Protein: Cytochrome P450 PksS
Amino acid sequence: AALRAQGPVVATRFPLVGDVWITTTHDATAQVLKDNATFTLRKEDGDVAGLRWWMPKLVTTIANNMLTMDEPDHTRLRGIVDEAFRRRAIVAMEPRIRAIADDLAAELFVGGAPADLVERYARILPLSVICELLGLPMADRARFIAWANAMSSLTNIVSVVRLMFALRKMRRYLQGQLQLAREQGGEGLIAELVQVEREGGQITPDEMVAMVFLLLAAGSETTTHLISGSVYELLKNPGLRDWLEEDWSRASLAVEEFLRFVSPVQFSKPRYVRRDVELDGVRLKKGDRVMVMLAAANMDPAVHDQPERLDLERKPNRHMSFGTGIHFCLGHQLARIEAASALQALFTRWPRLGLAVDASQIHWRRRPGIRMIAKLPLVA
Ligand code: HEM
Structure:
């Protein structure tokens, strides 16, 4: 709101990124995301707009995924995995997702001790689902958590070095998994990627690693924070919790509002401005960069009535949490089903669930881009 008071498009300086424009309204955000001829993810020389010259080659290789690509490469890569994320395929996974959620919920409290929901539930559920979808061994989830932790705590040079080691290990691991699938076949998306490679090579070996890396990262962290943010809000608002517990078929409607209210992805990757352009009355020059603030779009009073109010029955709900345009979240249906299943499994299994500490003691991690509760200690 403070930024929006300065205008729909505001100049600012961002850590690691530098000078950028930020959109603060729903309208300006949608304009940028939908005009992918003017606002591109790559510069003319092909470099990713958000990466800096000093970032190691490894980062560039891993960032070589659909999320950082413009047409036609974006369409080529998204087309390869689109089928696996179609509604039919994801709905077919729902019973399995519910079973995973039920099992995790049942194991949450050992001997009545408090448990951290983020670590023991919200993190493991999406990771388990994406592992199954990709065909990665469940036993390797602990490694992904360690890597995700390295990615989510970039505070000083030591943590940056730690991240580089983590990325290197992760790349080696994923290359190993792809090789295994080449030699032995298998179930899941990794095996399907290998099949695509075999049939004509629409994807390079480096792009395959980057794709799996993207799916692992985009498919787990974000959903983790949607789940923990939703649980936190329900525990703070007993009236809303009662309303939901009365009828779990309301969960999908509620999840839409949690998506808006929690806004797990606060802003998108920087877009590069290809030509001089006027955006909501503000002149941007060719070569400038823009970041769209999804969280601000989600709180824009021009679009959402009383945006600061958590209204689980909100309809219509034009939130921007999954972005829009050609990069609209590939995993949106999966995330929605995961969140609804996670809430129902948790609150049904533990009817007396509550916060183990005062709500004011819950901390958010300082990570640019993703809004996350660091720990959510609960008692049952
Ligand atoms: C793209 C949010 C869950 C996979 C995006 C974008 C957003 C987003 C905002 C667009 C970014 C941009 O335009 O710069 C979220 C949120 C999630 C979630 C809030 C959970 C609550 C998932 C899941 C998956 C996934 C479960 C699946 C594995 C992807 C992929 C892209 C993407 C592959 C890139 C799509 C493209 O470039 O065409 N997501 N996401 N996401 N998301 Fe999600």
